[in-house]
Design goal:
- Strands 2-1-5-4-3 form a five-stranded antiparallel beta sheet, with helices on both faces.
- The longest helix is centred in the middle third of the chain and has 50 residues.
- The protein is an alpha+beta fold.
- The radius of gyration is 34 Å and the shape is elongated.
- The relative contact order is 0.08.
- Helix 6 runs antiparallel to helix 7, helix 7 packs across helix 11 and helix 8 crosses helix 9.
- The structure holds adenosine-5'-diphosphate.
Amino acid sequence: MLTLESLTAPAFRGFFENLGVGGVQISTDGRFLQVNRRFIELTGYPREELLQMRVGDLDHPDDREPDRERWDAFLTADAEYDVEKRYVRRDGSTIWVHVTAARIPMNGEQVTIAKTVEDVTERVLATHTLREREQRLREALAVKEEFLGMVSHELRTPLTVILGLANVVAKNGSSRAQVQRTVLEIRESAEHLASLLESMLVLARVGEEAPELEPILIDRVAHRAVDRHREVFPNRKISVKVRTSTPLVDGHEPWIAQVIANMLGNAEKYSPDNGRISVIVDREGTDVCVRVLDEGRGIAEEDMPHIFEAFYRAAHAVKDSGGLGLGLAVCKRLIDLQGGEVWAQAREAGGAEFGFSLPALDAED
Ligand code: ADP
């Protein structure tokens, strides 16, 4: 008769104890009856503790429920048990194991169960890493495709305008005043095209270092950006307030100018004609902050986490205005490269605040 004793007979014990994989013998009610050396190594528990434990105690909490179902199916429906799951070791670390189970028939009704347990952590983690890489690659490809689709559309629009208008000017018969007007329109479209290209180039320069940073009087950059904005939008109520006496930062002037211009451009685009735009330069601790405030529609809660992502546009923006969703991503990239931070928040009184901070140069002197 095959008994527990025969399973623990010296010849079998030696073989079982020295198996290269973890081995356990379990009663049908789930208690460990025998555990071998490799299993002890795998789990980090001493033999005496394991013999007080039950099958499932080692399972990772997230794997417990699915495993209980498979185990019940194995016990009651004669299903195969061949699974990969996680064990939590005694020291709290997690390992991946490949576990198979087989019944050991005993005389009469009773059976015990033998399990082999193999540490497959390395393989599983390698597979996960591969899968994650594959997923990232797929996402990058999807982004690239989306990018190409949008880019070709966005670039073609001003290009078509430029070509059409140039053809008009090329034909004789236009008055001098007409030619002048058309040339101005051509210039506007060409500028739009140039700024689109510039945005794309900024975002395509992955991991690039900032050029040598220099002391920049940020209030001067803000004033210039606002002057430029006034030239293009003369009817807009717009003001600059400088609340710090030392608005000097370490930065790259053309980049700071571009960030302020992008934020002003958005304030213009996303607020009503009679709304006021304010630019505030202020000191906060060791930083100089620039805030662009508007009285527009503000930012919806659900848009907030995505607003600085490339290509992200709120639903209202897609519906009401043109744009690629690159302006704020460019701001973030340029400010990141200068060691600063960008933010966006809804204003209590309505409207949006977009801002950035850069480390002040002088600290306290
Ligand atoms: P674009 O303006 O081309 O859509 P941006 O990256 O500049 O791209 O802006 C991303 C999105 O952030 C916009 O589509 C818009 O939904 C939102 N947004 C940006 N600026 C403002 C603002 N001042 N007020 C409200 N929403 C804004």
